[in-house]
User: Fold this.
Amino acid sequence: MNANWEKRYSFRLQEEDEEIYNLLARVPDNKRSETIRQMLRFAVRTLSEKQKSNEENRRLLKEVQLLREDLMKQHLELLTKIEGSQSFGNVQADDTNEDSTITEQAIDDSASAMLSSFGIEF
Assistant:
């Protein structure tokens, strides 16, 4: 084993560490070091996984925000198109009224021309 791996660390428990104290008190003396090492490994892995999860959550949140912005942009474009088609529909309705007026006028003119060809004047 490498000399760096044989390095020893020690620490002192404080008053707020009562839960750790109670846990270690139940472990036999010859297993305490291994128990502490396993607890530290677990804490390091858990923190690392939590950090990765937080990064993924931030990435997903950013993606959702971009999708929302794109959706809002498309929604506004659609509303603009709908408003444009409604005003175009109103113009068409006005044109239809003019066409029917022109058509009625054309019918009257045609009828008058036909009657006048028979010598009947209105």
